């Protein structure tokens, strides 16, 4: 089991909802200057929405290092990295990855909806846009991970077979010497 996929992380993934987005926005807005406080124009909003729906919008974007799910901060980047480094995933890990994908997609859809229909400042819109891109990156990495890791059972069986054959031949060599 990956170090980052602890019991606490799993419980957060199981019980999260996408309601923390607006609270995070207010905190991020405080970090920007007064220019960022002006309302976003319809043209800027449309441009951000179009960018978000481009085919490779996630290319070059980092998975968020930490992400809040269910009121707790989860080391999302570390979870994704640890899972990608594994050769095989257990069925339990695959199920939690699927749940994590579902939760991240819910957050990403909320981000899109807020970007589309809420009265936002430039700073708020940029924060939402960056968060949505990072979530898309994490979602696509996790989706590719679950499908690719299904091949592990075949590799594991082949490795076990090679090990059994090697043991057989070593036993045979011991018998004849």
Q: What report would you give on this structure?
A:
Strand 1 and strand 2 form a beta hairpin. It contains 7 helices and 2 strands, in the order H-H-H-E-E-H-H-H-H. 67% of the residues lie in helices and 3% in strands. The protein has one domain (7-150). With 177 residues, the protein is mostly helical.
Q: Any low-confidence stretches, pLDDT <50, length ≥5? A: none
Work out the count of structural domains.
1
What is the C-alpha radius of gyration, as a whole number of Å? 22 Å
Q: Main sheet?
A: 2 strands, antiparallel
Helix content: 55-70%
The arrangement of helices and strands along the chain is HHHEEHHHH
Number of helices: 7
What is the topology, as strand order, of the major beta sheet? 1-2
Number of strands: 2
Main structural class? mainly alpha
Summary?
The chain has helices at 7-14, 21-31, 42-52, 76-85, 91-117, 122-148, 152-176; strands at 67-69, 72-74. With 177 residues, the chain is mainly alpha-helical.
Secondary structure topology:
Elements: H1 7-14, H2 21-31, H3 42-52, E1 67-69, E2 72-74, H4 76-85, H5 91-117, H6 122-148, H7 152-176
Antiparallel strand pairs: 1-2
Helix pairs in contact: 2-6, 3-6, 4-6, 5-6
Please give a handful of descriptors for the protein shown.
two-stranded antiparallel sheet; about 180 residues; mainly alpha
């Amino acid at each position: 089991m990956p170090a980052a996929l602890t019991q606490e992380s799993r419980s957060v993934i199981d019980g999260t909802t996408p309601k923390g987005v607006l609270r995070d926005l207010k905190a991020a807005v405080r970090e920007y200057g007064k220019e960022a406080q002006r309302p976003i124009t319809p043209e800027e909003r449309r441009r951000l929405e179009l960018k978000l729906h481009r085919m490779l919008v996630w290319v070059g974007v980092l998975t968020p290092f930490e992400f809040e799910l269910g009121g707790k901060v989860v080391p999302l980047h570390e979870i994704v990295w640890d899972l990608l480094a594994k050769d095989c995933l257990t069925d339990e890990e695959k199920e939690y990855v699927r749940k994590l994908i579902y939760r991240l997609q819910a957050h990403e859809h909320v981000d899109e909806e807020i970007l589309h229909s809420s009265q936002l400042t430039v700073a708020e819109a940029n924060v939402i846009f960056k968060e949505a891109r990072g979530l898309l990156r994490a979602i696509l990495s996790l989706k590719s991970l679950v499908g690719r890791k299904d091949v592990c059972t075949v590799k594991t069986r082949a490795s076990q077979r090679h090990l059994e054959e090697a043991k057989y031949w070593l036993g045979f060599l011991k018998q004849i010497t």
